[in-house]
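Reminder to self: tokens first, then the designed residues, so the page reads top to bottom the way the pipeline ran.
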């Protein structure tokens, strides 16, 4: 009989302990629910930092409650990285770019920790955009060294992001570093094309074309005509039908006495020139000058008549009257 009593007592104690555990789990789940609801209220009020802290607290309480509160924990974990993204966006909208990068990095870490690959991928892209905007702000303020530092930090994160290469090329152009700029524009073209970012590739291609044409034109003004031809021909490798480059190339060849090349390039320039009569007059002048020196007087007269506008009127009329005796 005493043995039966003892067994019965142990059973009662066990039942009491089991009941206490159930009460504890129920209390922990209730606490998790209450914390979750409080976090939701903060979120609805757009109090993102406070909401984030409360969802983190909810997660901690739910984890302590065990499987009984798994659903609450999962719902809290679904909110946590998304709220951190909202915090990062607020920093970006306030143009606090450095803080925005830090905030997006935290969102990436949270999303990765919680297995939210969708948000992690979005955040990685957002961070690069923020860094680009940050670098552009410094670039526009002529803080070239700081802008370069930021663009290179972006490339350390993703070497297949074409925009920083293009921006770095613009910095080297400001520094009058022709070869450095062209190398970076080429990288932007290569990466942009590979990543199907054709707008960036086109920007870089046009920038390389225009920079080479500008430097080539400067060489003409300085009397370095062979160097000008070299640079202008390089420019055509980026855009074979660029009227400005073709016009300048005809000008350089005229200065070198390469009449046939001058005629060819002037003719192609006219085919591609989209401007009006005044814009075309300068090209007709180079064409007329080359044809005159080839002995094609009739064709030269026709070209000079079309060149007799604006700044080229006096020179064109002089050649027609004194050198060609045009009818």
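Designed residues (327 positions):
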């Amino acid at each position: 009989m005493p043995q039966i009593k003892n067994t019965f007592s142990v059973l009662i104690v066990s039942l009491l302990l089991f009941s206490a555990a159930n009460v504890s789990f129920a209390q922990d789940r209730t606490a998790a629910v209450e914390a979750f609801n409080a976090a939701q209220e903060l979120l609805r009020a757009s109090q993102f930092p406070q909401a984030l802290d409360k969802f983190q607290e909810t997660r901690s309480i739910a984890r302590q409650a065990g499987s009984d509160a798994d659903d609450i924990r999962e719902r809290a974990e679904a909110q946590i990285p998304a709220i951190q993204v909202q915090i990062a966006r607020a920093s970006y909208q306030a143009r606090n770019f450095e803080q925005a990068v830090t905030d997006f990095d935290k969102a990436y870490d949270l999303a990765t920790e919680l297995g939210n690959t969708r948000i992690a991928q979005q955040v990685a892209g957002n961070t690069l955009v923020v860094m680009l905007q940050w670098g552009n702000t410094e670039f526009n303020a002529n803080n070239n060294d700081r802008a370069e530092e930021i663009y290179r930090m972006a490339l350390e994160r993703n070497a297949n992001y074409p925009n920083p290469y293009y921006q770095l090329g613009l910095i080297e152009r400001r520094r009058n570093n022709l070869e450095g700029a062209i190398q970076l524009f080429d990288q932007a073209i290569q990466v942009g094309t590979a990543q199907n970012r054709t707008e960036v590739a086109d920007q870089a291609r046009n920038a390389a074309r225009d920079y080479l044409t500008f430097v080539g034109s400067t060489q003409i003004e300085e009397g370095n005509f062979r160097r000008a031809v070299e640079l202008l021909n390089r420019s055509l490798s980026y855009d074979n039908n660029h009227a400005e480059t073709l016009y300048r190339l005809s000008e350089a060849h005229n200065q070198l006495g390469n009449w046939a090349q001058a005629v060819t390039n002037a003719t192609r320039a006219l085919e591609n020139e989209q401007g009006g009569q005044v814009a075309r007059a300068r090209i007709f002048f180079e064409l007329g000058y080359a044809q005159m020196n080839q002995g094609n007087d009739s064709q030269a007269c026709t070209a000079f008549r079309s060149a007799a506008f604006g700044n080229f009127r006096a020179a064109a009329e002089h050649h027609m009257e004194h050198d060609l005796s045009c009818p």
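The domain at 1-143 is CATH 1.25.40 (Serine Threonine Protein Phosphatase 5, Tetratricopeptide repeat).
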